[in-house]
Amino acid sequence: MSPLEIFSAVFGLFALAMVFGSLFTWSLGLRRLWQGGEFLPLERRTPVGWGVDGVIVSLGLVVLLANAASFIAQRGGWLELPEDPQKTPISLSDMSTLLTLEGGSRVLACGLVILWLVALYRSSALDLGFALRWSHLTAGLVGVVALLPPIYLLQALLTLWWVEYEHPVLELLQESGDPIYLLPMAMVAVVVAPLTEEFLFRVVLQGWLESKGMKDASPAGDSSGHVGMDAGASTYDGGAPSGEGLAGDGERSTAPDRTVPYWPILVSSLFFALAHLGHGPAPVTLFFLALGLGYLYRQTHSIWPSLMVHFCLNAITMIVAAVSMMLGEGL
């Protein structure tokens, strides 16, 4: 057997196992919903401190630092961008440089946002989605198994019946066949992109929207904006009280599950999809993926479950593209 045939066989078995695992996971989840429960338990949280200013500052820093890095690189002669990308495609080396700059600027922007939120709002690790428990890893594993097979199936159907999938990075890699650019591009695609996008879209944007909905649903007379447990509030399966994080918040009240809205999932998913325009049918696929990622964040108030799913999605895509490129054949 050729290396391509071996990889195809192994990958086929992996895909088959994922499909059966997804069907099993969805059957268990739908059974829980039928019995009046939830697919995943809802964990305790408090409304985050930041408002729309956190979203604006985060977006502004990402755009500002990315443009600044690109401008400095072009002025220094390290990056040359074509005046008309439609007529003169960007070279692979310049694309690699551009992606590295964008990845680095995103990480720096997210780091500055975290420092700003901690300094100004005394945001804790729980507020920022970085508090980690075993239940979060379990939720992430459930998300990987449940979401990836239907997402890949939807992508295949859209590519077959609607429009071909487009991704400039993968296309350049396939055309060049040069593996030297794989490592930096894989680092950006598999590590930097999931981490920064999950922080910006789930933690900052969806976290603010959820908190806004929770505060709007606060019982009359609660001027603090925090929502407390009432006599009719349900208990939390697997939820743990919030503790001290990056900055201590003292005594923090917690919210009953009925006050955590679902609509922020839809809003954050829409913006996540719009951020990926220009990649063929990807915005449609990513919108449905983001619905799942947003649900994971709503239930856990943690970045780790959605990050696991996002990481695995991009990692599988990059592995398939890399093998196809190195073997010089399509899969």
TrEMBL record:
GO biological process, any: CAAX-box protein maturation
UniProt protein name: CAAX amino terminal protease self-immunity
GO molecular function, one term: endopeptidase activity
Keywords noted in UniProt: Hydrolase, Membrane, Protease, Transmembrane, Transmembrane helix
Domain (CAAX prenyl protease 2/Lysostaphin resistance protein A-like) ranges: 182-212, 262-316
Transmembrane segments: 6-29, 50-73, 103-121, 141-163, 183-205, 270-297, 303-327
Upper lineage: Bacteria, Pseudomonadati, Planctomycetota, Planctomycetia, Pirellulales
